[in-house]
Each structure stands twice: as C-alpha cells, then as structure tokens.
C-alpha cells in the first residue's frame, strides 16, 4: 500500500544538500486518500487513549503547577514558578525529599544485599534447596495491603510478635511506627520484605546463568568462595544488579500504598514520602497547584534515574 | 495484509462498532443505576457519609427508620472513606450527576465548604420552616455558623475530655482531679502516680495532635487566628506563637522533665497505643476524644474517671470546642431534593435519635432533651462518668475562641502544629518551634487568600 | 609430580556406574592423553583428578599423597577448560593474574609471573584487551597463560582445542606440546580426537563403555590394539573388521565367506572370529568372472592416494587405500587380497594373538 521511495525517478542523483531539499519538498513517501483513512483508523484509537490518559493529564499538571488553585481546585492566579520556588525552599518539602531519599536508598541497599545473599545461598547445590528457593521467592505474590497488615501485626507495640519477643527477653519494646526513626525503619523493613521475592528471583536467575566453569577454574586456582563471590559472581551479574537496583529505586520513589496503610506519612512527617505528600496535598488539603508542582519534580527525579539506567545499561556495565 | 483487513473492517465496521457501543453502554448504564434508584413515588436523597464500623451500622439504622417514617423521600446512604478524602470528592463531583444531595463533612472543612459556595446554608430551611434549633448544643451549632448564619447542622460531635484511672488513684491514695481541673492539678496527680507506683505507672500523656492544642487554646479563651478565629472576617494572620500556647507546652514540658509523661507520638497508632496502655494500667491520665468512652468502658477492669479538659492555673475554663462532623446540603440539586435532605437532618437531630446515637457510637447527644431519654439514663446508671462529656458540652458558652476555626487549609495547619509539638516533646525550644510553625502557617494562609482573591 | 589412579570408580546414582576399575600411573613430566568417544566418562575422570567431582571408590594419589578428599586448590594443579573459562569482565592480564591474586601473592611476584606467562604464549601486546576482543586461538592462549602463571606442575586440559578450526588446531597442538616440554609439566589431556592423541601423547588411555580399554604409547596402541574398539578408534580410514569362520576341513584355515582365506600356523581357537585389516594393508586388482571376490562401489582420490570402497561378494563393505591414483569404475569386479599385519579378534572383539602365514586368497 505504501509507495516505494525508489519510485521517485530523480532520487539518488543529487548532492547531499539538494537531495535533502528534494526530500523535504517532494513526496517520496505519500499516502492516497484511502491509505490515509486506514492510517487514521489504525492510529486513532491509540492516539485517543494516549491523548486522554497521558498527554492531557501531563499538560494539565504542568499548567496547574504554574497557578494557584482556589477552594474548589480551580486555577485562579498565575504565579509562574513560584510554586516550585516555595517547595524547594520549604523545610517541610525538603524534609520529604530527604526522607524519601533515606527510604529509597535504604530500601534499595537492603533489598539488593539481602536478595544477593539469598540468591547466592540458593545457588548452592544442597539437599532441599528447592524448598528454600520457593520460600525466598514467595513474597512475590503478596499484595501491598496484605504485606502492610501482616507487618502491622508484627510491629504492634502491645500484642505484636516483636513486642512479645522483647518483653520475653526483658528488652525495651521498640516503638515501631510511633517513633520517627523507627517508623522509617519499619516501612523500610516491610518494603524490603515485599521486594525480596522479585529481587531474589531475578538475581538467582542471573547467578544461575554464570558459567559453572568460571567457579571451577577459580576454585582450582585457589580462590575462596568469598573471593569467588566478589570477583566472579558480582561482576558477572553486574548488569542485572544494576537493573534491579534502578527498578527498586524507582519503585521506592513511587511507594504509596504501604505508607498509606502503615504510617500515613507520620509520625510527624517522618515517612511523608514525595508521592504520599502529593496525594495528601491534593486530596486532603485540596492544594492542587502545589501537588502538581510536586508531581513534576518527582517526574524529573524518576526520569533522571531512568535515564541513568538507560545510559549505563547501554554500556552493559562491566562488559 | 492491510488491504485485506481494511476490506474486512469495511464489511463489518458497523456491526463491530455496534457491539462495542452496546458493551460500553451496558457497563455505564449498570454502573449509573447502581443503588441510586428510589422506590416509586419517592424522591431519592443521595447521602455521602464517612462513618465506618459500628457507627455506620447505627447510621444505616437511623436512615432506615427515617425512610419508614414517611413516604416522600428515600435517603440512600453511601460510605465515602475517610473525612479528609471525602472533602475533595464532594467538591470535585459538585455539579455532576454523581454528586450527593446531602453529605457529612468534618469540622475543619467548614470554611472550605462555606467558601466553595456549593452548599445551601441550612439557615434557609430553618427560617422557612421556623425550625427551633435552641435544643441543639449552642457551642456545636456555633462551630458551623458564620456571622449568625447556620451553614450546616452538627451531627456527630465529640469533645476532648480527660480520662483517668480512678482505681489506680484510689490504690495509691491520690486525690482525683476536680470536675474542671487545672494544669497544676493534673501535674500533681501524674507525678504522684509515677512516684508512688515506683515508676511502674506513667502519669500522663497528651497525643501529638493539633486538635488538642487548638482545644487548649479554646479553653484558655485564645484565638489562634485573627478576626475571632475567622468568625468575624476572613483570616489574615495566624499566631500559634502566643503566650497561652507556650503555657500549654510548658505544662507538658514540666511533666516530661519529671519523667511521668509518656509520648506515644501521633496518628491513629498513638491513640491505639495510649488506650492499650491505659487499659493495661500502665498509664494514669490521658486527654482524648469523648468518642472513646465505649472502648474505655468495655473490658476495663478498673473504674474509669472523666473530667473536663484541663485549663491553665489562674483562669477559668472557657469551654472547649467540638470535633466531629456536620450535615450539609448541596445546592446543585432541585429544591424538592434539598428540602428532603433537610427533612432527614431534622430527623437526625431529634432527641431520641441523638440519644440512640450517643449510646451506639460514643458521640455526644446534641439535643438537650436527649438527656431525658431512657437509653441515655440507662447508660449513665451503668457508667456514671459517661455523663461528664455531655455536661462539659452543655456548660460551654459559645464565643469565637471555642467555636472552632473558620479557616481553609486547616489540615496543613494541624500538621504544622503537630510538627511543633513533636519538636517540643523531643526537647526542642518552644519559642523557635512555634515561630517556625507560625511562618509556614502564615505563608500558606497568604497563598490561600491570594488564590481565592481575598 | 606423578599421579596414580587406583581402581577409581564413579557412580552417579547408587545404581549406574559411569567409570569402573580405572587404574593408571602417570609419570612426572609425561604428556598423558585420555581419549574416547563422547560420553565415555573421560571428562568425568579429569574432573575427579582435579577434585571438582568426588570419586565413589578407589584412590587418587599425587606423588605419594592420597588426594581423594582434598579440595581442588589443595591439589596444586591447574586446568584448562574446553570453553577456556575466561572471565569476560577482566582484561587478559587480569585473567591471568586472577588465581595469583586469589592466593594473595605479592604484587611484584604476580606482575613478574603474568608478564612471563603472557610472553610465553605471545600475548604481551594484547594484555589490556577483554576476552571478547580476542580470536578463538588468542583466547586459548590466555587460558594457557593462566595455567603457566599458576606455576603448578600438573596441568589438566579438557578438550582445549575442540572450539578451534582445523588449521588453528594443528598450530595450537604444537604450541601446547612445546609448552609442556619446556615447562616439564605433567599434562593430562582429554580429547575425543584420536589424531591429537596420536600426535602429542607419551601415553594414551583409551576409555570406552565405562572401562579403560587400553593404556599404551601411540605406536603400541596403533599396532597392538587390545580389542576391536581400540583398533577401530585409531587410524584413518578406519580398519576393516570382517567376520570369519574356521574351515571345517582344516582348522588352520579361516575363511571370510568364500571371499578371503587365511592360512594360520596354528589352529584357529574358535569357530567364529573377526579379522582386522588396515586399509593400506590390502591390495586390489581388476578381475573378471570367477576371479573376482568384490565389486567396486566408488573411489575417492585424495592426491597422494586413493580410497576404494567395495563390497565383498559375501556382502561385507570394505575400504582399501592404494598409493597414487587408481582407476576403478563403479560396479567393476575386482579381486581384493591382503598379506600382512592381520589382526584377529574373538566374536566379542577381544584380541587373539595368532601367528599366521598371512596371506589371503580366494
């Protein structure tokens, strides 16, 4: 249905410069009316869906972020970048940025280290290892709400497992979820627990695909298993490791359900992550313009990490 | 390939389109007809509320009996989640077919609802029908009114009260607090309890909760915000850093320093934990909503004591404001519907229903005649202390300081109050914590005013 | 350092034996080749010597130490893998230095050894490259350099040349041989390629069907195969093995049907035998009618010799190597004879030593 560019009889006999002009001015790729009809017929639905669900909300968010919104959420006063300036100079917002960073980095580091540990453990040829492999990946099927409720029970200061253990051992009960520092640790633990199944599975797959002969060669050459882990396993799976890190990082930035169910951003903003903050500013306080600005800042942050991932993955990390 | 598929589409385009349209139609029609139809001849009144658990059951019961009591209207209750989220749902759905005719919205959303101009002030119906509101608690009514105009009518209402473990006080021979105790009185009891129990029992706690700080100011006859907490004009200045806030925080600081104070942090978990500790006899005194009476009496081996919210030494208690929510009427529905909504409000406010409501939920009966109802009398016989919150509510003479704060953005203001409280609880400087809060609150207020052209 | 295998056995599950009764003595400085068809267990045997696979029974000794339970690194040996086992994320230099670093040698020592090893395999210029930037032969050399640098006196190689093309294989064969001689390594080399075995080995171990078939020098194995399998495994084209019967009239005479007749000095030990004749120990000439005992199928001219494929009248296929060019047409009747180097096997393929007058005629 498409006309071949070669059907243009003059193509290919001009200098690069004039050729470009010709391609711009002449139709080397044209559609007749019928083709156009089909083109729109096929592209239409996806354009419509993208337009309604992606482009319009994006531009609307940008638009709102440049205004102040009134009581009923309508943009009223154009303020330019004032919303952004306010955010980036507000101690409260900077605190949110900080706790998000702490959370995201904490979650990523712990997920990767634990996932790697379990994956390495599960790669050993031991009797009954299959049971552990299943167990380690079990949290993959657990939904956020189930995980949150499960851990809320564990963290409960009077009847929770951890409190009972502490009391039994005559240790002070840790104020999980009520103390700023511990609440952060509690949500990190829960998130890591949830992430672990997926991370384990991916890393386990990566480790399995490292040729066994590399380890055999190393063990003959006198490398300890510790040395092998750091000098063979880690470099071999570094692309996967990097991929999982970035995915975990980005997922961390987007963490919402767990925060809503476990801490509601508290105590006193100690776990008020960027996404949760956006939700509260928009749907609790009705401050849509500020929430829009926050959304765009978050988008930029996530985009930067995604870009980093693409850049580095292009180079395949180590080899 | 494309051509083939094209011919196929051309041949069958209309039938395919038809199927899609029908499918979509079925989904939408089904969705929109869901639960919104009333019985023949009755006007449907869609009612959005945020009551979960036992309160929802009690509310459904009330709605059912209303629907049975007459044949003109049918109230259709729909649960909309938390107070905070419901506010935005109400505002954003306004003017669409999905919006409610009648809705419940919580205390600190009053200014927002007023400014949205999306509601019909109930004053209109009060005047038209010559409805006598004098039986309804004045301090609760004044919370939802502006310049003499009733915007909405309070429905579920609570007040902060002071709970104490009477059994423990008796055990250690400590004189219980008076009905309306002063700060120093509570300090004395908390300290004695802590010392006499050899540090086994903590004396007191005060949740990091902006509402409690606001109530302390109300009880000290102090407006947080200019123009009489917004009742006499649009707020332009917030001063949380005032001598009376300092007085309140210093009182807590005193108790923290002597070790009798325990900090449970903020939020729902703080409340769960302080109640658990109180019931376990590990905590002597705490200040919290009167709506917790139910939880504190069932399964409590110890005798529950209740007093009014404490007031600073040397001043008389001004009486505290209320918490809870009110019933509002949307103005995007026909007159007939709005009238029906008001019909239900009147029903909900009557003495019998308010009495049942208090027994079922712990929220205070707003109608003064409810006190004569048998169900409430029975409750008081069983738990004498349950009488106290109602008395506190009845005793308060409404003024600007104890009629709530009529300002938008209260959610954020509360958060900032709580940040300041936590700073102080953790040993930070009172003045600088309040100054920081002041700055942020005023910046926010200015933005709000600017956005709304005030 | 010498290696002694004493009745070594490997079972995979409790039932199936993979290797049985493997015994051998590999002397210090010897180039020892283990050869056999794929699946015969030769790699398993090598891995057992390396310590990568535990043995089920028997004894492996290095010098006088039993190493059965020693981990690989305690056996003081080095190994070159079929796929070279190079670390893709390390440069050539670091690949060679890997084991030395793992053993925490002094940096100076490492540098000196790596340099020396790379020089020995001619890779000094490529030291900074990653494995993926090398050709197959260069990768092979990196693996060799790693073995060299490790300074172990025993080197195990598992089909090291099988991933290379034919020409490179010949070149690397020579390099490996030269290196082994130069360093005085005790080298155990696993291959399925009889040519590699013949050209490099001091001694060859032939493995098949879970058992050692024969151990011997290349010429010994070629000339005196202990059974039909070994005889068939070595030599290209393959040896002709023909079924034969003892004559009922004269027990000194053995007949391959009516096509060939062998006269023995002694009595044939059994009624049924197999006769092995190397293709270059046979002659062919044109014949007609009653004279002929075979028909030509086709011929292959290789330049310096010609292979004639033919079918004996009795139905057995044979092939004969003739020097120079030989012109036979297909379906041409011929007469095949042989007169030397006959081998006799019993029906199970076991070698029978028989002196023979050794000629064959119709």
UniProtKB/TrEMBL annotation, chain A:
<feature type="domain" description="ABC transmembrane type-1">
    <location>
        <begin position="97"/>
        <end position="309"/>
    </location>
</feature>
<feature type="transmembrane region" description="Helical">
    <location>
        <begin position="295"/>
        <end position="313"/>
    </location>
</feature>
<feature type="transmembrane region" description="Helical">
    <location>
        <begin position="228"/>
        <end position="250"/>
    </location>
</feature>
<keyword id="KW-1133">Transmembrane helix</keyword>
<keyword id="KW-1003">Cell membrane</keyword>
<keyword id="KW-0813">Transport</keyword>
<dbReference type="InterPro" id="IPR000515">
    <property type="entry name" value="MetI-like"/>
</dbReference>
<feature type="transmembrane region" description="Helical">
    <location>
        <begin position="37"/>
        <end position="56"/>
    </location>
</feature>
<comment type="similarity">
    <text>Belongs to the binding-protein-dependent transport system permease family.</text>
</comment>
<protein>
    <submittedName>
        <fullName>Glycerol-3-phosphate ABC transporter permease</fullName>
    </submittedName>
</protein>
<dbReference type="InterPro" id="IPR051393">
    <property type="entry name" value="ABC_transporter_permease"/>
</dbReference>
<feature type="transmembrane region" description="Helical">
    <location>
        <begin position="131"/>
        <end position="154"/>
    </location>
</feature>
<dbReference type="Pfam" id="PF00528">
    <property type="entry name" value="BPD_transp_1"/>
</dbReference>
<keyword id="KW-0812">Transmembrane</keyword>
<dbReference type="InterPro" id="IPR035906">
    <property type="entry name" value="MetI-like_sf"/>
</dbReference>
Automatic annotation (TrEMBL), chain B:
<keyword id="KW-0813">Transport</keyword>
<dbReference type="InterPro" id="IPR006061">
    <property type="entry name" value="SBP_1_CS"/>
</dbReference>
<keyword id="KW-0574">Periplasm</keyword>
<protein>
    <submittedName>
        <fullName>ABC transporter substrate-binding protein</fullName>
    </submittedName>
</protein>
<feature type="transmembrane region" description="Helical">
    <location>
        <begin position="12"/>
        <end position="31"/>
    </location>
</feature>
<keyword id="KW-0732">Signal</keyword>
<comment type="similarity">
    <text>Belongs to the bacterial solute-binding protein 1 family.</text>
</comment>
<dbReference type="InterPro" id="IPR050490">
    <property type="entry name" value="Bact_solute-bd_prot1"/>
</dbReference>
<dbReference type="InterPro" id="IPR006059">
    <property type="entry name" value="SBP"/>
</dbReference>
<dbReference type="Pfam" id="PF13416">
    <property type="entry name" value="SBP_bac_8"/>
</dbReference>
<keyword id="KW-0812">Transmembrane</keyword>
<keyword id="KW-1133">Transmembrane helix</keyword>
<keyword id="KW-0472">Membrane</keyword>
From TrEMBL, chain C:
<protein>
    <submittedName>
        <fullName>Glycerol-3-phosphate ABC transporter ATP-binding protein</fullName>
    </submittedName>
</protein>
<keyword id="KW-1278">Translocase</keyword>
<dbReference type="GO" id="GO:0005524">
    <property type="term" value="F:ATP binding"/>
</dbReference>
<keyword id="KW-1003">Cell membrane</keyword>
<feature type="domain" description="ABC transporter">
    <location>
        <begin position="3"/>
        <end position="234"/>
    </location>
</feature>
<keyword id="KW-0472">Membrane</keyword>
<keyword id="KW-0813">Transport</keyword>
<dbReference type="Pfam" id="PF08402">
    <property type="entry name" value="TOBE_2"/>
</dbReference>
<dbReference type="InterPro" id="IPR027417">
    <property type="entry name" value="P-loop_NTPase"/>
</dbReference>
<keyword id="KW-0547">Nucleotide-binding</keyword>
<dbReference type="InterPro" id="IPR013611">
    <property type="entry name" value="Transp-assoc_OB_typ2"/>
</dbReference>
<dbReference type="InterPro" id="IPR003593">
    <property type="entry name" value="AAA+_ATPase"/>
</dbReference>
<dbReference type="InterPro" id="IPR017871">
    <property type="entry name" value="ABC_transporter-like_CS"/>
</dbReference>
<dbReference type="InterPro" id="IPR047641">
    <property type="entry name" value="ABC_transpr_MalK/UgpC-like"/>
</dbReference>
<dbReference type="InterPro" id="IPR008995">
    <property type="entry name" value="Mo/tungstate-bd_C_term_dom"/>
</dbReference>
């Amino acid at each position: 249905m498409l006309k071949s560019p070669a059907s243009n009889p003059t193509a290919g006999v001009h200098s690069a410069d004039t050729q470009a002009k010709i391609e711009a001015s002449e139709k080397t790729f044209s559609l007749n009316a019928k083709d156009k009809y089909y083109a729109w017929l096929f592209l239409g639905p996806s354009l419509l869906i993208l337009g309604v669900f992606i482009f319009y909300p994006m531009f609307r968010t940008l638009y709102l972020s440049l205004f102040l919104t009134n009581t009923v959420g309508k943009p009223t006063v154009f303020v330019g970048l004032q919303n952004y300036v306010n955010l980036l100079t507000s101690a409260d917002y900077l605190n949110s940025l900080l706790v998000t960073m702490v959370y995201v980095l904490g979650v990523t580091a712990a997920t990767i280290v634990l996932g790697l540990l379990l994956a390495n453990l599960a790669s050993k040829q031991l009797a009954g290892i299959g049971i552990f492999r299943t167990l380690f990946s079990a949290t993959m099927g657990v939904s956020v709400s189930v995980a949150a409720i499960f851990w809320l029970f564990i963290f409960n200061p009077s009847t929770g497992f951890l409190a009972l253990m502490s009391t039994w051992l005559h240790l002070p009960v840790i104020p999980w979820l009520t103390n700023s520092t511990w609440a952060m640790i509690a949500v990190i633990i829960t998130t890591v627990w949830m992430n672990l199944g997926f991370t384990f599975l991916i890393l386990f797959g990566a480790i399995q695909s490292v040729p066994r002969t590399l380890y055999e060669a190393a063990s003959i050459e006198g490398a300890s298993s510790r040395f092998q882990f750091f000098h063979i396993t880690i470099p071999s799976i570094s692309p996967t490791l990097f991929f999982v890190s970035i995915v975990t990082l980005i997922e961390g930035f987007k963490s919402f359900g767990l925060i809503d169910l476990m801490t509601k951003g508290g105590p006193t903003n100690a776990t008020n992550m960027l996404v949760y903050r956006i939700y509260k500013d928009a749907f609790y306080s009705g401050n849509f313009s500020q929430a829009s600005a926050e959304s765009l800042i978050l988008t930029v942050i996530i985009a930067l990490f995604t870009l980093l991932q693409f850049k580095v993955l292009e180079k395949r990390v180590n080899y | 390939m494309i051509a083939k598929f094209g011919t196929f589409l051309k041949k069958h385009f209309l039938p395919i389109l038809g199927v899609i349209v029908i499918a979509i139609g079925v989904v939408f029609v089904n969705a929109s007809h869901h639960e919104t139809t009333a019985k023949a001849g009755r006007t449907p009144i869609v009612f959005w509320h945020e009551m979960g658990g036992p309160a929802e059951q009690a509310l459904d019961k009330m709605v059912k009996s209303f629907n049975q009591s007459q044949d003109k209207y049918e109230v259709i209750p729909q649960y909309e989640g938390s107070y905070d989220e419901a506010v935005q749902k109400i505002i954003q759905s306004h003017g669409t077919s999905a919006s409610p005719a009648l809705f419940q919205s919580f205390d600190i959303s009053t200014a927002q609802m007023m400014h949205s101009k999306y509601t019909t002030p109930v004053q209109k119906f009060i005047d038209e029908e010559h409805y006598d509101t004098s039986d309804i608690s004045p301090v609760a009514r004044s919370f939802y009114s502006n310049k003499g105009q009733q915007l909405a009518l309070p429905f579920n209402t609570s007040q902060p009260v002071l709970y104490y473990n009477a059994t423990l006080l008796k055990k250690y021979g400590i004189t219980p607090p008076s009905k309306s105790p002063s700060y120093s009185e509570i300090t004395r009891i908390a300290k004695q309890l802590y010392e006499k129990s050899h540090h086994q029992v903590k004396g007191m706690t005060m949740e990091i909760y902006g509402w409690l700080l606001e109530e302390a100011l109300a009880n000290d006859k102090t407006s947080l915000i200019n123009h009489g907490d917004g009742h006499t004009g649009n707020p332009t200045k917030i001063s949380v850093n005032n001598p009376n806030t300092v007085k309140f925080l210093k009182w807590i600081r005193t108790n923290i320093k002597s070790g009798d104070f325990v900090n449970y942090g903020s939020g729902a978990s703080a409340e769960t934990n302080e109640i658990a500790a109180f019931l376990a006899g590990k905590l002597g005194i705490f200040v919290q909503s009167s709506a917790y009476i139910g939880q504190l009496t069932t399964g409590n081996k110890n005798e529950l004591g209740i007093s009014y919210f404490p007031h600073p030494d040397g001043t008389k208690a001004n009486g505290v404001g209320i918490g809870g929510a009110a019933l509002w009427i949307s103005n995007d529905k026909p007159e007939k519907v709005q009238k029906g909504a008001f019909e239900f409000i009147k029903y909900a406010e009557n003495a019998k229903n308010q009495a049942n409501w208090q027994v079922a939920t712990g929220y205070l009966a707003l109608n003064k005649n409810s006190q004569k109802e048998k169900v409430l009398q029975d409750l008081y016989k069983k738990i004498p202390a349950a009488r106290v919150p109602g008395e506190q509510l009845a005793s308060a003479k409404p003024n600007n300081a104890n009629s709530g704060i009529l300002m938008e953005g209260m959610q954020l203001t509360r958060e900032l109050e709580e940040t300041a409280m936590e700073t102080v609880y953790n040993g930070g400087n009172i003045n600088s914590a309040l100054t920081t809060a002041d700055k942020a609150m005023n910046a926010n207020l200015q933005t709000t005013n600017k956005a709304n052209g005030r | 350092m010498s290696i002694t295998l004493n009745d070594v056995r490997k079972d995979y599950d409790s039932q199936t034996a993979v290797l049985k009764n493997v015994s051998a003595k590999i002397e210090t400085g010897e180039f020892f080749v283990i050869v056999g068809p794929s699946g015969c267990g030769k790699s398993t045997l090598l891995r057992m010597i390396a310590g990568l696979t535990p043995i089920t029974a028997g004894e492996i000794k290095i010098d006088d130490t039993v190493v059965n339970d020693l981990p690989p690194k305690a056996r003081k040996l080095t190994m070159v893998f079929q796929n070279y086992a190079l670390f893709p994320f390390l440069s050539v230099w670091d690949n060679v230095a890997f084991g030395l670093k793992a053993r925490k040698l002094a940096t100076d020592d490492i540098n000196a050894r790596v340099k020396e090893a790379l020089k020995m395999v001619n890779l000094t210029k490529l030291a900074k490259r990653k494995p993926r930037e090398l050709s197959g032969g260069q990768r092979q050399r990196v693996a060799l350099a790693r073995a060299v640098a490790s300074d172990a006196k025993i080197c195990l190689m598992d089909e090291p040349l099988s991933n290379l093309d034919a020409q490179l294989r010949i070149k690397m064969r020579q390099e490996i041989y030269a290196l082994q001689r130069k360093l005085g390594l005790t080298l155990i080399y696993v291959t399925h390629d009889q040519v590699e075995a013949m050209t490099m080995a001091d001694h060859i171990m032939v493995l098949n069907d879970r058992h050692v078939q024969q151990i011997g020098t290349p010429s010994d194995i070629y000339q005196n195969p202990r059974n039909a399998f070994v005889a068939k495994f070595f030599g290209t084209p393959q040896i002709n093995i023909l079924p034969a019967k003892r004559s009922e009239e004269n027990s000194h005479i053995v007949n391959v049907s009516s096509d060939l007749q062998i006269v023995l000095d002694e009595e044939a030990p059994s009624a049924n035998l197999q006769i092995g004749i190397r293709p270059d120990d046979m002659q062919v000439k044109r014949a007609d009618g009653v004279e002929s005992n075979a028909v030509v199928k086709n011929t292959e001219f290789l330049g310096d010799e010609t292979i004639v494929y033919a079918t004996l009248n009795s139905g057995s296929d044979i092939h004969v190597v003739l020097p120079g060019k030989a012109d036979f047409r297909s379906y041409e009747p011929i007469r095949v004879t042989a007169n030397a180097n006959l081998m006799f096997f019993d029906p199970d393929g076991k070698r029978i030593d028989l002196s023979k007058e050794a000629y064959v005629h119709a």
